[in-house]
Structures are given as structure tokens and as C-alpha cells.
Amino acid sequence: YTEAWDADKKSIHVMPDTPTILLAKANAANVSHKLYIQAWEEAKKKGYDMRADAIPIRSAKASRDIASDYKYKETHEKQKGHYIGCRTAQEDPKLSWAARAMLLQNDRIYRKAYHDSKAQIHIPVDAMSVQAAKECQTLVSDVDYRHYLHQWTCLPDQNDVIHARKAYDLQSDNVYKSDLEWLRGIGWLTEGSVDVVKAKKAQELLNERLYRTRPDEMKFTSITDAPDIVQAK
């Protein structure tokens, strides 16, 4: 029943010159961004020819020079008149700085002769302090304190030399530990060592299975003539 109506709904023909269609086309042209900037895009494609002596270029350069000169002199213009009319020289920062610099310069010149002559000291060689320093240096000197003995040369087959070598060998750590060289590289099992036995004993002490017996593992036989058993029967 509705098949013909459904087919007819899909075949609707609107005339292109109806007022609604024309209005929609006009509105689309008005709100179209592409059409709005089309003239600008075409003008950009044509390029431009701007000379260096053109009026806008010369105006921009003049404005830039004026702004630059203004920024350059801005701090100077703000400081104009700030240092005029000081009651005393101490209130003027520049005058105070100059006075301080002059004071430091005068102090350096005043002490110049002292600094030049303070390193030029002449002490007589026989002064008491110099003699005392020399005696003290002699007392604390390691060279004068130690007098090394003559390096004697002994024959290798003398009895005292042979005895000394034997004593050195006995005291030597290498000779003392030479009987332990055969132990190097030998494997050792920790089973039976003190730490292992101690750990096993501690484990046995902390083992709850050995410490307490579960009730279900105990053999128990109830009494047949107990009052609660007789009552239950």
C-alpha cells in the first residue's frame, strides 16, 4: 500500500529558479569564506612592486627613528632635575661616590711608601734572636739528630749472617703460612660446621610440630560409665 508513496518520496524534483533555492544560493555566497577572500588571494598572486623611496616606506622609517630616539632618551628624560637642589654634598650620590673614591686613592698613596719598604728588612747576623733561632733549628733538625752508621758488608757464609737469615725466615709471614698452601682450592662442605648445627638447633626449638602434639593424634578412650555417657545413652 505504501510502496508507491515511498518510491514517490525519493523522486522529488525542485525547480532551480524557485525563490527558496535562489535565496539559499545567495546566503551560501554571502557566508562563504572562500568567496570572501577570493579577491585578496588573486591580488596576492599578482605580487606587488614597492620601491624603497615609497611614501609608506619612508613614513615607517621616520616613525621607527622617532620611536628609537624616544626610547633611547627616556631614562635620561626621567632623571632630569632629580639631582638639582641638594642641600649637602652627602645627599648627592654621585658626589658621595666621588668623595669615597678620592679618600681611597689618598689612603693608597699615603701607604705606598710603607708597602714598598716593609719587605726591605736588614737584621744583623749576630743578633740574639737570630742566634737563638739557629740554635733551635739545630736542636730540632733531623739531620743533626740522626747519625747513620757505616754500611758494613758481611760475607754470606758467616755464622751470624746465617743465624739472622734463619731468624728472619721464622718470623716471615710467608714462611709462617707456607704450611697452609696445600689447603688452597680444596672444597669444604658446611655440613657439621658450627653455624649449620646452631641453625638446626634453633629450627628444632622453633618447630611447633615437635613442641606440641595435636589432640587428634593422641590415643584416647572414653570411660563407658561416665555420667554424661550414661545420660547420652
Automatic annotation (TrEMBL):
GO CC aspect terms: Z disc
PROSITE patterns named in the record: NEBULIN
Domain of life where this protein originates: Eukaryota
Molecular-function annotations in GO: actin filament binding
Keywords assigned by UniProt, alphabetized: Actin-binding, Repeat
Record-level GO BP terms: cardiac muscle thin filament assembly
Pfam families noted in UniProt: Nebulin (PF00880)
Protein name per its UniProtKB record: NEBU protein
Species: Burhinus bistriatus
